[in-house]
Amino acid sequence: MPDLPPPVTAGLYPYLTVRGGAAAVAFYEKVFGARELFRNYGEDGVRIMHSRLEVNGALVMLSDDFADAPGPAPAAVMLHL
Questions:
Q1: H or E, element range at 31
Q2: Are the C-beta atoms of 21 and 67 separated by less than 8 Å?
Q3: Distance from the CA of 41 to the CA of which of 33, 60, 61, 64 falls in 20 to 30 A?
Q4: Which residues, in sequence order, are bridge partners of residue 53?
């Protein structure tokens, strides 16, 4: 997997904040045939800071919930423009 994320074209992408990001990615790969294009980890080396998935030709972005950081909690909606 590359060290830097691949470029993103202009558009609107869903960004999921979840608990158990690695398990979520594995689930999306198994159930939806997702392909993970990029992943990097938080400072703890365990939680996903950012994952970029391709699902049926569309991009979906995902990160673990970082309760110790400001921002939306899981189940929140965030738009990446």
A1: helix 21-32
A2: no
A3: 33
A4: 36, 60
Which domains are assigned to the chain? 13-73 (3.10.180.10)
Looking at the chain, the number of H-run helices and the number of E-run strands are 1, 5
Q: Tell me: pLDDT of 1 over 70.
A: no
Kindly report the number of other CB atoms within 10 A of residue 72's CB atom.
11
Radius of gyration of the CA atoms of the chain, in A: 12
Token duo for residue 34: 């997702």
β-bridge partners, 51: 39, 62
Residues β-bridged to residue 48: 41
Instruction: Give the pLDDT confidence of 2-11 residue by residue, as tens digits.
Output: 566 667 776 7
Per-residue confidence (pLDDT) for residue 79, from 0 to 100: 56
